[in-house]
Write a structure and sequence with these properties.
With about 260 residues, the protein is an all-alpha fold. It is about 75% helix and about 0% strand.
Amino acid sequence: MDLATIVGIVLCIILIFASILLGGSPIIFVNIPSILIVVGGTIGATLIRNPLAEVIGTVKVVAKAFTIKVKDPAELIVKIVEFSRKARKEGMLALENVDCGYDYLQKGITLAVDGLEQQEIKAILTNDLQGMVNRHKRGKEILDGMGQAAPAFGMIGTLIGLVQMLSNMEDPAAIGPAMAVALLTTLYGALISNVICIPLADKLKVRSREEVLVMSICFEGIVCLSQGDNPNAIDQKLKAFLSPKAREAKPAEKQPATEPEEQAA
């Protein structure tokens, strides 16, 4: 679980509700017409702008902002170097039954063991990498669109409330509910946009960048394995992907190479 995402959302909700409670009854901040305008309008606009299959698929992509833990690049490098030493001593067929615990790396090693040409291996792995990037990009675009639509429908609700209020100026009892719709729709739109949609879109961007780094390390490592590079040379090539601080850090070398890890997106 990604605690940063969960803690951030929970903290926002707690602080907002605390400020509401300190100012009076929270019931006055609940308005069904306002919720219908903002939530319904945002969902409707999202469905208009995007195919239904992509909107449904975004739910799965967004879940990664809460649950996925990206593989440690330093541990991956240790695994790949270990595999290169094994292949150098016993041949590529010795890697036939290794369990990488990471689908992208496992697929690449299987392709290399099967004897595919380097260009074919690169093409297949590049397609997988680009597919992941595209899925995350579409998820981010849909969330950004929702982040733009929510405040817009908040403004629409405000205009509706003002029209209702101005058309009933002779009835003081109708002014209050109309003004509530006018103000609360703006509030709901701002909350949905700035607490949920935009932050989750930015988190997906971060997740995508992390996944690209991990998959790029695997890609380069598989290419080096397939051409029989020296293990020490592979180690140096792959560490070039890491920051200077990460290169100096000691990975968890005692963990077995077959330890299951989270799968790539």
